[in-house]
Amino acid sequence: MEFLIILVVAAIAQFFLPWWTIALVPFIVCMWLSRSGWKAFFLSFAALCIVWAAFAWYLHDQTNGAMSDRISQIFFLPNGLAMVGVAGLVGGLVAGFAGVAGYHLRAMFVRKDELVYRR
Length: 119
Hints:
Layout: H1 2-16, H2 21-33, H3 37-62, H4 66-74, H5 80-109
Helix pairs in contact: 1-2, 1-3, 2-5, 3-5, 4-5
């Protein structure tokens, strides 16, 4: 459930808000729902990695690789598809660390036995 919430809300927020909202969404969701730090990191990482890689792939496809190939030359990458992977990795890392920060902020103020989200 956390994965889908982060994926959908972050994808919608990317159209209307600045890029750094990819850190706010997993921070808030993981502070609210996450059961462990590892789960917070990996769910946030996977959700935003998919969002950013998908959008980078869309831009790569729309420009026939022209834009991503030029940007990949700046970073000394072999081709534009490698730039798509790097974009996904960067977005995933930002979101993953934000998710862990959200989980640990909640852990600071909640007793250990209450930390697990009960359904």
